[in-house]
Amino acid sequence: MRALIISNHKGVTDREITVIRKALERAGHTAKLASLTRNSILTKEGTEFKPDFAIFEVNPDFFDAVFVVGEGAAEFAGRRDVLSVVRAIALRGKVCGGITNGPLVLGAAGILGGKKATVYPKREAIKELIQDNARYSNEHVVSDGNIVTADDPESIEDFVKEVLQHI
Predict the structure, then answer these.
(1) Which residue in 17, 31, 101, 150 could disulfide with 24, CB within 3.0 to 4.6 Å?
(2) Statement: residue 95 has pLDDT above 90
(3) 155 lies in which domain range?
(4) How many domains would you assign to the chain?
(5) Residue 87 in contact with residue 63, Cβ under 8 Å?
């Protein structure tokens, strides 16, 4: 299985990238990192990650799962290039996930309609998720069909456990 992790260049924690990537790789899967450009992603802790792809280079047909991570991911909700990649993977019935503000991108891509989901617990984020027709839950990790969402980096281990059950 080939997974794509999409992160913004800011507002992401080390754990949101490393825990997902390492768990997938330990389970025998491949995990690639994408962002708007191939410039290094600088986490809140100061760690640099080099994306494998700029988003325009991503072929959604190559991936079996997509995960959008980070508080800064909210900026992707208005980017057609990011939304089209997420939507294309989701429409093939593949596993989709979002953590912190990543679920806002899933909502903007139109894949959360009628689905139960969670998001970073800020009023504006919750409102946006509901406007995208998701059924908001204040649980830390929520799974509905092939979609897994989590509210913040502290929930990463439970998020990854849930993701691995769907792969």
Answers:
(1) 31
(2) yes
(3) 2-166
(4) 1
(5) no
